[in-house]
Write a structure and sequence with these properties.
single chain; 328 residues; ABC transporter involved in vitamin B12 uptake, BtuC; two-stranded antiparallel ribbon
């Protein structure tokens, strides 16, 4: 098989081959991996990570990235918990406020990146540090307990045999898929991610689309934050370690281009399942947490490397065509 055919095969089916291999490896070597209780637990945890990954998919396809997701989840959960426990807010009103908080943070990140012409990764790296510090300051490093049963049920309850977070994940993924692939808005996202200047010349309001992406991502992150809070039954200063890293790894592993303008939501979701199984399987096998980070880091580097190699032939081909053009 030629190199080009190999890359084409990986682009279409590689993520699903990796998913199958990961499942088989842990099914054979990790005790209790295939038990009903563990599978349900994995799917539930994957759902929360998957919802956040949908937000990251929107941002990465549009040419952006957000490293502050973990901080947003922490601060949002603390705000919701504080409003409910300390100020007597109804949990539904607290959730609405959570959405406002996440959307505001996402819009602020976009505003700073747009106004100062800074790459979003740098802006959100700073936001991540601020939010993580704020989460610890707001709680003095202590969890906030006593969430109402109705809220906890969102993270731990079932509808029939299906966990509620799984149902919410599916709904979010379906709506996101429709927006990305069945609307003009989705086409604009791909366009500005691939080449913002060309998109601007084509009449697309690039800033407006970027702010729209920020709003959508903020709403989705808020949903994930509330489910994490409900699942943990408490607001914690660091409820989801490496959340942004796992989301980004899942996206790149699933074929979402790190440079923007390309990728499939289905691939990103498959990447979420791989990351979820890696987290769970390595834990069951007793792998040291530090080595777990090493392994996931290697996975990310390989995925980014493959993405860069896939994009390189297109640029080479473009230069070759340009060089062959006659001079005027």
């Amino acid at each position: 098989m030629s190199e080009q055919k190999l890359f084409l095969f990986y682009k279409k089916f590689g993520i699903y081959v990796i998913l199958a291999i990961t499942f088989v490896v842990f099914a054979l070597f990790a005790d209790s991996f295939l038990t009903q209780r563990n599978i349900i637990n994995v799917i539930r945890q994957i759902s929360m990570l998957g919802i956040a990954t949908v937000a990251v998919t929107f941002m990465m396809i549009g040419g952006g990235i957000d490293l502050s997701i973990g901080g947003q989840v922490a601060v949002t959960g603390i705000i919701v918990g504080t409003l409910i426990i300390n100020y007597g807010f109804h949990w539904s009103i607290a959730i609405v406020i959570a959405v406002v908080v996440c959307v505001s943070i996402s819009l602020l990140n976009t505003f700073v990146a747009e106004m100062l012409n800074i790459f979003p990764m740098i802006v959100t790296l700073g936001t991540m540090q601020i939010l993580n510090a704020c989460a610890n300051v707001m709680t003095n490093g202590r969890p906030i307990y006593g969430m109402p049963d109705a809220l906890v049920n969102l993270g731990q309850g079932y509808i029939g045999l299906i966990p509620i977070p799984v149902i919410i994940f599916v709904l979010v993924a379906v709506i996101a898929w429709f927006l990305l692939y069945k609307t003009y808005f989705g086409r604009y996202i791909f366009a500005i991610g691939g080449n913002p200047e060309a998109a601007r010349l084509a009449g697309i309001n690039v800033s407006k689309i970027r702010y729209s992406i920020a709003i959508i991502a903020g709403v989705i992150i808020a949903i994930s934050a509330v489910l994490v809070l409900a699942r943990n039954t408490s607001a914690q200063p660091n409820p989801v370690a490496n959340f942004a890293f796992d989301c980004m790894t899942a996206c790149v592993l699933g074929g979402v281009s790190f440079g923007g303008g390309g990728g499939k939501l289905g691939g990103a979701i498959a990447g979420v399942f791989i990351i979820g199984m890696l987290n769970n399987g390595m834990l069951l096998m007793g792998v040291d947490p530090n080595w777990q980070g090493v392994i996931k880091g290697i996975v990310l580097i390989i995925a980014v490397g493959i993405d860069c190699v896939q994009r390189k032939p297109k640029k080479v081909k473009l230069r070759a065509v340009t060089a062959d053009e006659p001079e005027h």
